[in-house]
Amino acid sequence: MDLSHLEQAWSQQTVAAPAVPAATVSARLESEVRSAQRRFRGTIVMAVSLLVLGWITTLAAHLTGIKPLTPLTVLSQVIGSALYIALLARALQSARAARAEIACLGGSLRDSIAATQRTLELQIQNTRIAAVAIPLVVASGAWLFLAKHLAGEMPGFSAVLASSFLALLGTLIGAALWHRHRTVLAPRHRELTETLSTLE
Amino acid sequence: MEPATRDALFAEAMQQHLGIFLKTAYAFTAAAADRDDLVQEMLLAAWQALPSFDGSSKLSTFLYRVANNRALNWNRSQRRYGHKLAALEQCPQLTLETGDAHSDHARLDWLYTLIRKLAPIDRTVLMLHLDQLSHREIGEVTSLTENNVGVRLHRIKRWLSEQKDTHHGP
């Protein structure tokens, strides 16, 4: 088991001095991180604005008499808003998990891998929810076209075409999400679990 | 942590401990493009994690942890951080330089190829051992007990010897 020549070769490795000063790299990293934070905050602000705008438009249409509110409209608006808020809450939860993961980067391998696994589990949950929820929402849209046709508000051919398109879209989105879960997230989770078990 | 303290620690990491990132990247990736990506990710990870450095361990121990943690998480985050690192394309191309002897290059290539075949934790243990960290220090980085580190190293060295004999390594 004489590996001394390998150890000797290893010890002779040296790093070519970087041409860019540390301060420049540090400044670039800071700017990248800050711009990513701004992007995330901007997305959340835009998402909340859209929700508020949706309600303002609905209420304004009701108050001006353009489109009076019906119990069905209020119900669908409330359900839609609840789903939207739940989605935002999941996004914020994922962001918190990602921050916790970064905080664990300087910790032990076990803590860091466990933090990564928690983030991944959240991603898996999100993907599973989306894989069911998005096709469901799309399917309800398809049903709406059929209902309109039955109420005489839409020709049969258009209703079938629109419903078929939405059904296909829902199936494709669901399949794509499930594929990501099966080929990327689940194997990665297994890999991390195996790595964690080797640390026991 | 004050921004100035973080900058000073990051400068120290870049000037004195860049080898930690580079060797870890070599041990976890074979392709040069992947290696550059991983080194950049490690630098980003170090920069982000430095505020949590409380000085209770050596800076090098902290950086070993960051480098190995990032390397282990790299698959998942590869795409996630891809856009962030675009601005770092001007970063220096980091290379490992050995003595002039051709045999040293061959030995290192052979060693890195074998390291990449090991389980991720064993890769880390072997690299830290080659960097002459004690069993206790390896335990601090990996959260393995000193005994466990010793047992793993014995097993890894035996495997390396077998590979050398079987494949007529350098």
Question: How would you describe this structure to a colleague?
Answer:
The complex is a heterodimer of chains A (200) and B (170). The longest helix of chain A has 43 residues, at 156-198. In chain A, α4 runs antiparallel to α5 (156-198). Chain A has 200 residues and is an all-alpha fold. Chain A is elongated and about 85 Å long. Chain A has five helices and one strand; from the N terminus they run αβαααα. Chain B has helices spanning 3-16, 18-28, 32-49, 59-80, 102-117, 120-130, 135-142, 146-166, and one strand spanning 96-97. The radius of gyration of chain B is 17 Å and the shape is globular. Chain B has 170 residues and is an all-alpha fold. The mean pLDDT of chain B is 82. Chain B folds into two domains: 1-96, RNA polymerase sigma factor, region 2, helix turn helix motif (Rna Polymerase Sigma Factor, Chain: A, Orthogonal Bundle); 101-170. At the A-B interface, α1, β1, α2, α3 and α4 of A face α1, α2, α3, α4 and β1 of B.
